[in-house]
Amino acid sequence: MPNPHRRLSDPRELNALAHPVRMAIVELLSISGPLTATELADRLDETPANCSWHLRKLAQHGFVEEAEGGKGRQRPWQVPGLGFRWD
Q1: CA 60, CA 68: separation in Å to the nearest integer?
Q2: pLDDT at residue 79 above 60?
Q3: pTM (global) more than 0.70
Q4: How is the chain split into domains, by residue range?
Q5: Which among 61, 87, 83 is positioned nearest to 5, based on CA atoms?
Q6: Residue 49: how many CA atoms within 13 Å on its side-chain side?
Q7: What is the CATH number of domain 3-86?
Q8: Please, where are the H alpha helices in 18-71?
Q9: SS3 19
Q10: pLDDT tens-digit series, residues 25-71
């Protein structure tokens, strides 16, 4: 079960999240559950390579993580928790 309301404390975390494609990726994964970069690209009208790059950036800050059940290009991603707060 996802952990609710991740506490953000580093401004770099907000910077990593503050991109329209990255925000859309987090939103889609939160609503739809695990998706691959290709599935995200289809829904966001982006390229799979672009979505993959943004997924890796989000993963560096813990906003997304690899989900089980995939390999290589068929790797699904998921959000580890729902919601954020900034103190």
Answers
A1: 18
A2: yes
A3: yes
A4: 3-86
A5: 83
A6: 0
A7: 1.10.10.10
A8: 20-32, 37-44, 48-60
A9: coil
A10: 999 999 999 999 999 999 999 999 999 999 999 999 888 989 887 67
